[in-house]
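2.7 Reproducibility. Because tokenized structures are sensitive to small changes in the input, we list the exact sequence used for Serine-glyoxylate aminotransferase, including any N-terminal residues retained from the expression construct. No trimming or masking was applied before prediction.
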Amino acid sequence: MSSQNPVFIPGPTNIPESIRRACDIPTMDHRSAAFPPLFERAKTGVAEVLKMDAGEVILFPASGTGGWEAAVTNTLSPGDKVLAARHGMFSLKWIDLCQRHGLDVEVVECPWGEGAPVDRFAEILAADTGHQIKAVLVTHNETATGVVSDVAAVRAALDAAGHPALLMVDGVSSIASMDFRMTEWGVDLAVTGSQKGFMLPVGLAIVGVSPKALAAMETAKLSRCFFDFRDMLKLGTPYTPAVGLINGLGASCDMLLAEGLDNVFARHHRIAEGVRAAVAAWGLRPCAVSPALYSDTVTAIVLPEGVDGNALVRHAADAYHVAFGAGLGEVAGKVFRIGHLGMLTDVMALSGIATAEMAMADMGVPVTLGSGVAAAQDYYRTNKAAPVQAAA
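Resulting structure tokens (single pass, no recycling of outputs):
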């Protein structure tokens, strides 16, 4: 008998059956009259999830990394200066992408486990009286370390300095799972993908583009072809779109909005708190250096010296057929990650916590079997979930 255990990686996430079925549609002529309503439904739903009052939602057949490249190449020119912090694998990768495109990246180095350095950003922006910095990059949720950064505070720093730089945000592992307020926070480009909070397979890069970013598109001179916003806005789908995924995205947005975004965010927070209660009961700690930085979509757990986190992840997969996230970059081998986003419930989270306990015990980590499960159970019993619409 084959088994279908939930995954506990921070993406791709578990797929609700109704969304799986929404992606499974017959071949459609995307130039026919049948496609535009399906396309508009998905884009309208994404705009609601982003809390986006103006601008455009653009969908590319790509992953979130394609969304990063689209954001950069459509709004900047060779040699432009951008400001970014390096504090995890995905902030590092975005910086690398910018450097490969010939941009001048001012990098603020931060320990892995910390978030975007708002105070340092504020100092740099205030000192840039000539407005040489054209964009500020923020990784809202650093997936490698389980750290969330304060996007609203970065916007406040820009405003306090009277600085016109674009605010670009990587929301790949936060959007649709954690509160994101594109218009209120003054985000100019918000990047995410289909395979995390939207609970779809990999295959769509999703970019929210503000009116200010649309204006920057007209003078930007970085080379772009496949990721050209102008072609997408003029033609809608200048090349073959991922029709099934787009239909699934519409269904996903309907599901999220039916649950209620506040309920979605509360569910993720509650499940994450249960996982963190388990971590404390094990006598371990998250990689994030303070509770204010704890992510509600992924927890990176620091293991005792001498325990290889990546070996632990492999063991959990081999022995129990359950997937956890390995450590990446500077924390490779030092942590393992429990993803708790997308289609997840308290009961599913408890199964992941129990499996993590068994795998750690097998690897010689001094944990008491049942301790983390009991701590999470206690939290979930005393912090009840809001009623939600059941996934079909």
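The chain has two domains: 17-258, 260-382.
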